[in-house]
Amino acid sequence: LARRLHGLGTTIFAEMTALAVETGSVNLGQGFPDTDGPVEVLEAAVEAIRSGVNQYPPGPGTAELRHAVAEHQLRCYGLSWDPDTEVLVTTGATEAIAAAMLALVEPGDEVVALEPFYDSYGASVAMAGGVLVPVTLRPPSYALDVDALRAAVTPRTRLILLNSPHNPTGAVLSPEEVAAVAAVAVEHDLLVVSDEVYEHMVYDGRAHVPPATLEGMRERTVSVSSAGKTFSVTGWKVGWVTGPAELVTAVRTAKQFLTYTSGAPFQPAVAAGLRLGQPPLDALRDSLQGKRDLLCAGLRDLGLEVFTPAGTYFVTTDIRPLGFDDGVEFCRALPRRYGVVAIPSAVFYADSERGRHLVRWAFCKRDDTLALALEKLAPLR
Ligand code: PMP
Ligand code: GLN
């Protein structure tokens, strides 16, 4: 194993989903919905396969999907991108992030990221030869510590890898926090890679603010999103990047030699989904908000300390009120003892000690799945 991959091991999602299958547990670990997305989207993929859309699509993605992504960004955020040069379709957000790191980070460059972070960030930065510098978000609010962000920036800093709505904490950066990040980026002339895969999963009437909408940010921001979350089709792995042509061209250069292209019949289906406009997105958000409330109330009843999330699929809890001390041990024991899988948040920290007492639960599941999980967990109380 090459030295730059040392310590990456097996992703927690593979380990925990395998354990869920092996033990027949309710899987509140890996963030995937257990219901499919809009029927129009599913039907469009079936129709595309039947009508022969099964060979390599164009490397940057089909023109139809690139136009649909551009229209979606314009409709939702007032951002105007040229579909030919400023939009790139990727194999999920995961590839978009990896390609962005490979394209934009020189060996030894520092990448500032909010910690805890989605586990592919550390791996992508490492594969690019970069150094991830964490800025820790702390419970209960998981608010951004702007002084810590400023202190993390050094002359070696190349970019800020941002994620809001934020996995795993569920935090959503406020307009003021996004403005603070933008101020730091502009002041130090940094690029921003903004992972917005949960852009439509923001609750309680709050709004998602894309950093690219702020002054001085359009020209330095690569925004990333994914159909997996937006249309509840995580296995399709259709993502996209938007940004100024120069940055998108750089990401495309790396992307060409990772996968070249993928998802031929899924690209027209995702384009059809984006053209459905706001109604299915609002319906999904409202449904997920209800699921959040159900799981948070249930976990609180068990005695866990619950940090209610403003967005995403996930809620974080502190396990200490139940007398446990180590989230990794807790999550390894949970499937066999109670028949439920959750994710130890420690895996999302550069220094796992900082997440030692924390456990992440996914609520993007059917209400009866959530109720069953809570029933199985009842003896914890
Ligand atoms: N970023 C974040 C914050 C995520 O939670 C995920 C997980 N789905 C991804 C990126 C990857 O998205 P995709 O499945 O489209 O590769
Ligand atoms: N993003 C999802 C999560 O955080 C799934 C990630 C994955 O399977 N790689 O659970």
TrEMBL record:
SUPFAM superfamilies: PLP-dependent transferases (SSF53383). Its cofactor is pyridoxal 5'-phosphate. Keywords: Aminotransferase, Pyridoxal phosphate, Transferase. Residues 26-356 form the Aminotransferase class I/classII large domain. Gene3D superfamilies: Aspartate Aminotransferase, domain 1, Type I PLP-dependent aspartate aminotransferase-like (Major domain). GO terms for cellular component: cytoplasm. Coiled coil: none annotated. One of its GO terms (molecular function) is kynurenine-oxoglutarate transaminase activity. InterPro entries: Aminotransferase_I/II_large, Kynurenine-oxoglutarate_AT, PyrdxlP-dep_Trfase, PyrdxlP-dep_Trfase_major, PyrdxlP-dep_Trfase_small. Belongs to the class-I pyridoxal-phosphate-dependent aminotransferase family. This is N-succinyldiaminopimelate aminotransferase. It comes from Motilibacter peucedani.
